[in-house]
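Quick one, T. Sequence first:
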Amino acid sequence: MFILYNIVNIGLRYYAIVYGYKKGIGFLNDNQESNLIQRISTMANVVGLMVVGALISTIIKVQTPLEISTGSSVTGEVGENVIAIQEMLDQIMPSVLSLAVTITVYHVLKKTKGSHAAMIIVIMMLLTIALTYFGIL
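Structure tokens:
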């Protein structure tokens, strides 16, 4: 039984490898005329960018507790109306601060060609600690 199974298995493997090789060579020859791989690569690139964009808004959380307090010109009291900056930004575009941080880090990495990535991580950590300590984040 074991020998019979292996004879069938090896025969099918050989046939599948030869069939896959012939189909792969045919695909590559056809691709030279139709640019199919280039179109598939472009579509995969778009899907990848959409996934990264979704990850930015769900994983990176940057929020500010800062508020603007406005007074009444009639009564002269200060702090009567309070406007939360984070709520205003979320009404304009949700997670806009996360996007701004991501774009800034991307441009710094692009400008330095990624040579100072570890230093950028340390600077981001120190900046986050400092901004949180002062109540900005």
